[in-house]
Design a protein that fits this description.
alpha/beta; NDM-1-like; RibonucZ/Hydroxyglut_hydro; 281 residues; Metallo-B-lactamas; seven-stranded mixed β-sheet; Metallo-beta-lactamase, Chain A; Metallo-beta-lactamase domain-containing protein
């Protein structure tokens, strides 16, 4: 995604979603001693720290304040040698794209093998009920392609991969150390619980709700109770809340999805300040 594409999305999305109560991103800060996030307008970039290893989950927009906000967290781009991508939408890949500024040019990028078809040009990312498309993403970094169910380690961090398609064809969800579940855009959390993500931005909404139900079944069958962290709407440790409406997709045209806790203009970052981004001891 080029700077031009970022600028277009900033203007269009800000106009389209203002007052809808849809996006409720976390402000920049530490969630606990291991997990932190940077706010980039309506999206969050996450960092997981264990010992001397720090990994980045999703890469946000082409966002000029990323290094500054990482500094609020006591983090530096040079610490990031590995980046996990849940999917290749333009608000999750910007910092590792060819024109993304090069902060993470030496990092290895991990993504799903099916999602990689957007990179190769085999697939075009369709949005707005498949009436529109997003620009092709280009990532020059070394890549590792992942499959559903794969388990691997980076340093002392164990990562398990779950394919949860629908929003994109190869959308991947990552479970870190069995405790933190980074879900990207597989789940939207509203005032009354979780839903499949925005209907207008999915490749296949029927697939999205089926995949989300199957994913929930896997978690419950294994007795897993992770902290569930979304890309745009915060987090919850309550699985009943997270999957309360897994058979429905969020629709911005329907007032039932309005979240009064969400900011009127989620692109307004005036509440995202360094003073609030407390670094844990």
């Amino acid at each position: 995604m080029s700077k031009k594409s970022t600028a277009f999305q900033y203007k269009f999305m800000r106009w389209m979603y203002r007052g809808k109560g849809i996006f409720n991103p976390l402000n920049t800060g530490w969630i606990d001693e291991h997990l932190a996030c940077v706010r980039e307008w309506i999206a969050n970039v996450f960092f997981y720290r264990k010992g001397d290893t720090v990994i980045m989950i999703d890469a946000g927009y082409h966002y000029e304040r990323l290094e500054e906000k990482m500094g609020w967290l006591g983090l530096k781009p040079a610490q990031i040698s590995n980046v996990l991508l849940t999917h290749l939408d333009t608000d999750h890949t910007g910092a590792v794209e060819a024109d993304g500024g090069g902060l993470f040019r030496n990092a290895t990028v991990y993504l799903g093998e099916i999602e990689n078809r957007y990179l190769t040009g085999e697939r075009k990312r369709r949005v707005l009920y498949r009436l529109g498309s997003l620009p092709r993403v280009r990532i020059p970094n070394e890549k590792v392609l992942l499959r559903d169910g794969q388990v691997f380690t980076i340093g002392d961090i164990q990562i398990e991969c779950f394919l949860v398609p629908g929003h994109t064809w190869g959308h991947m969800v990552y479970l870190l150390d069995g405790r933190y579940l980074l879900t990207g855009d597989a789940i939207w959390l509203g005032a009354d619980g979780g839903y499949s993500f925005l209907a207008s931005l999915a490749e296949d909404n029927r697939l999205a709700v089926r995949a989300l139900a199957a994913f929930e079944a896997k978690l419950r069958a294994r007795g897993l109770r992770p902290l569930v962290i979304t890309g745009h709407t915060g987090y919850s440790a309550d699985l009943d809340f997270v999957f309360a409406h897994r058979d429905l997709c969020c629709k911005t045209s329907d007032k039932r999805y309005f979240n009064p806790a969400a900011p009127y203009d989620a692109y307004d970052e005036s509440e995202d300040t360094e003073a609030r981004a407390v670094v844990p001891l």
